[in-house]
Design a protein that fits this description.
With 142 residues, the protein is an alpha+beta fold. The chain has one domain: 3-Layer(aba) Sandwich (L-fuculose-1-phosphate Aldolase), CATH 3.40.225. The chain contains 4 helices and 4 strands; from the N terminus they run αβββαβαα. Strands 3-2-1-4 form a 4-stranded antiparallel sheet, with helices on both faces. The radius of gyration is 17 Å and the shape is globular. One of its GO terms (molecular function) is aldehyde-lyase activity.
Length: 142
């Protein structure tokens, strides 16, 4: 049975709406800070629990949607096993292909409230070199 957002208690619906707003705003920061290219990378956030009867939920970017097309309304809502709920978004908007990894973190690490996954051009370029990151600061040695 699919969970339906509009059938959840009002407090849960409000928590989802607020989480969608935050996740959409955070996605806008990724291209602004040159942390992603095209549609790669994503942010998710655990929806704060409001009712013990409501299963754990997360909000994540829909797959393949460009950053300039993102809004709070098209952020996808999933259960902590990664299944999309009936959240008011079109069926064509599917959760990010990385949803399972995000859901795994939330399921096994209850203290985690958010996950950011980027494809920074700097990190990607360094990884392509196939070399370890050198220890150049004393803080890195600690």
């Amino acid at each position: 049975m699919t969970l339906v957002l509009t059938e959840l208690p009002a407090a849960a619906q409000e928590a989802v709406a607020a989480t969608r707003e935050r996740v959409a705003a955070l996605h806008a920061e990724l291209p602004r800070n040159d942390l992603v290219v095209w549609t790669a990378g994503n942010v998710s956030e655990r929806v704060p629990a409001t009712d013990p009867e409501v299963p754990g939920l997360l909000v994540i970017k829909p797959s393949g949607v460009s950053y300039d097309e993102l809004s709070a309304e098209n952020m996808v809502v999933c259960t902590l096993d990664g299944a999309k709920i009936a959240d008011g978004t079109p069926d064509a908007l599917t959760p990010s292909s990385d949803t399972a990894a995000h859901a795994y973190v939330y399921e096994h690490m209850p203290e985690v409230g958010g996950v950011v996954h980027t494809h920074s051009t700097y990190a990607t370029a360094w990884a392509a070199r196939g070399q370890e990151i050198p220890c150049v600061l004393t803080m890195m040695a600690d």
